[in-house]
Amino acid sequence: MVRLPYVTALTTLFSYGLLFAFGQLRDFFRRILDAHKPSNLKARCPCPRPCSYLPGPIPALVHGPTPPRGAMLQILLARCSVSRPPFLTVDFVAGRTTKTSKCLNLGSYNYLGFAAADEYCTPRVIESLKKYSASTCSVRVDGGNTKLHTELEELAARFVGKPAAILFGMGYVTNSAIIPALIGKGGLIISDSLNHNSIVNGARGSGATVRVFQHNNPAHLEEVLREQIAGGQPRTHRPWKKIIVIVEGIYSMEGELCKLPEAYTYLDEAHSIGAIGKTGRGVCELLGVDPADVDIMMGTFTKSFGSCGGYIAASKEIIHHLKHTCPAHIYATSMSPPAVQQVISAIKVILGEDGTNRGAKKLAQIRENSNFFRSELQKMGFEVLGDNDSPVMPIMLYNPAKIPAFSRECLRQNVAVVTVAFPATPLLLARARICISASHSREDLIKGLEATYSVVMITIQVIELNFMPIWQVISKVGDLVGIKYFPVEQEKSTAVEKLKKIQ
Amino acid sequence: MDMALPVVNATAAVLARVSAAFNAPLARAVVFGVHIDGHLVVEGLLIAVIVFQLTRKSYKPPKKPLSEKEIDELCDEWEPEPLCPPIKEGARIDTPMLESAAGPHTIVDGKEVVNFASANYLGLIGNEKIIDSCVGSLEKYGVGSCGPRGFYGTIDVHLDCEAKIANFLGTPDSILYSYGISTIFSVIPAFCKKGDIIVADEGVHWAVQNGLHLSRSTVVYFKHNDMASLASTLEKLTRGNKRAEKIRRYIVVESIYQNSGQIAPLDEIVKLKEKYRFRVILEESHSFGVLGKSGRGLAEHYGVPIEKIDIITAGMGNALATDGGFCTGSVRVVDHQRLSSSGYVFSASLPPYLASAAVSAVNYLEENPSVLASLRSNIALLHQELSDTPGLEISSHVLSPIVFLKLKKSTGSPATDLDLLETIAERVLKEDSVFIVTSKKSNLDRCKLPIGIRLFVSAGHTESDISTLSSSLKRVSASVLSDYF
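Structure tokens for the assembled complex are given below, as produced in the milestone run.
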């Protein structure tokens, strides 16, 4: 759980209040200055604008992963434009320049390292591209069903441990189109308070009543369940037609693992499939739960498999029903065949069916990397959320001014991190989110420490990425920005002593 | 005079008494040596009454919460419905499986067939240049982009694609989405909020309906492609309604309707929009790259300047033979979506090879505008050949690349209609190796337009393909529908 010091909470609230005041002031001046512009439609009822005081994301351009590992990427640092009215965006990258820099990528969801061109996957993908072309231009039920799609559905079902599966071209659409097909008016959805936006949209689109239970708290879930079953539908008190409980495997903003309850369960494994568990089969394998106990398992291929799309795995009857009613299956263009082939090859690598043990090595590597990194960060005094074994580790920042400062400082030292604030997280709990990949090699990091520990303490001139000690950078930036909320007693130790401790 | 005197006396007496009462010294009492004024007694009594009332328990009907045992019993008794209904007997499950690219000729279930089921309008599936650019992208970037646009998922090909599309259409900017149908159902909720009014065509497809539902605005439907109905709806909503002046109003139409093949008359819609001051959201999935002299869509076809349409969205899974979608409009429209559109912010970005395929496709269209002429001649030929099909009639527009055939006389039940049409499609595939499809509906779709057979015409079809199709269709429908007309 997050422990927020009072002083920090107060200063954060004050900062947000200041931002809001500035945003309102800016809007006020804009209204005055724009009053003379002739636009009868817009002046009367302007298009809705996002909150002008909220800092937007800090997009940067990616020039592509440098082969062979994809753990590093080149970022085109463009001119920062001044904050454009009417948004008080903190920073916005517009246009492109030729100034590129190679950075260590700690922000992309590339858990198993399939994001770049892979020696097993890419030749097969190119072959399928030449055979089936980039798109089928047709919906799945019409002319969009190829041999690859059927093969992937069987493979995904086998991988997850369910009898059957159905494929979709986009992970977001999987959730928002499946939930209305399973439950409608008169049903109840109990979802975790921190579920992803796609689940929220799907639940709203279904027309069922939605109740929320406290994040990852099975006792509260049980209490809500009992109360709702006994109470029945609101106002009429008729018994509920169906109740579905929706949880996620790993929460993308928290990095925690869920504890699975009973009732019709819908498990969203967008982040955990392929990355968690001894053979990568997700949260069920890690926690020792039989997949047959979970009614519906959903996952995406964007994260661990380096492709796009999503799937639902469940019993044969449910999949059959979905194939006949789910709008995303009947109305949406089928998944692009090369992307399907990428997933098939990636799953084969993970299962070891390609004839090598690269899959097992990748899984072991990511687990080792995440645990090592998390423990090092905690030793340095950062507040890191998330359970062990989870490759997602958020570092708490809280204050809105620190969010872009942290990100920019890290970028200046060639480490790319992602920072998130409201509305993706609660207002006071802004954080930087680190995603570890199996491609990050520990040897690099330790070699880097040995070579440049003294240099780093004095200057920040790092040229060759291979010698970059990541946590030295993060530690330094953390000091600069002041986010070490739990300082360790030996804070004054130099890099040499730290190195000795690690070894 | 005699009567006046007693009246005067009585009045004087009353007046004297009242003034006496007023001028009387205030009543005083002395209690325990303390002087107490009269009004204090009154106040003291009032306070006593109030305190007395407050201390009495108010009457509420007794609330008897359920005991634990009762809750347990209810939970045990509760029987949920099954998560899905049981499999119906005889339900058609198998979809045909393609074993090669979905071009004009393809291999289905091992057999080579003529393909009228893919919306490959410009014949770009299998195009060498596009495949080469995809291969280049795949080798450089891999398949997926591994992150949303805000978190290092923006790759230079995305920006190239957005600039290219905006340039092609003549708008300032555009924004890319990673999936065709998610475009419209993310754009509508980003702009239309609770309390707004949306006037939409009743024949819009499911993705648009989902967007309208998610936006929580008031939605009013008008008759499919009927401008008189639209005008009267707009009139009814705005006449005499002072409040309507201050809320946002939108018209949502599709350029070529997927459910019927009709084309929306954009010039009339723009006239109505300007008269009643509404904004137009135009869904151009099937007309982008098809209509207009150079394929720039419905606006070019009707000669309407593109600035007059506020928001244009399109899926790229049709003419451009790639996947994903885009939305374009003024600078404000596009920038707003970068922060508020849920399908853009909360979802991974388009795989880079699909974005480079889109760029190559638009380049191809700019360099070879003759492909549009072949598409148009194919559509005209098909219309001509199918005009005398027994039992089926063409209900789509003459320029629409989706040729929609519906039953001349419906059997009365949609299930039987669907059955007949599916039988026709199956027999055409089995006997003459032509792959056609019927329009399928999900039970969540609220569009009530009739179903039919949908033929997707491509510029890559030859005349012999079209004549094979028409002769086969005529023969099979004559035999299947002979009992019904």
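The mean pLDDT of chain A is 73. Chain A has two domains: 89-111+357-481, 120-351. Further analysis is deferred to the final report.
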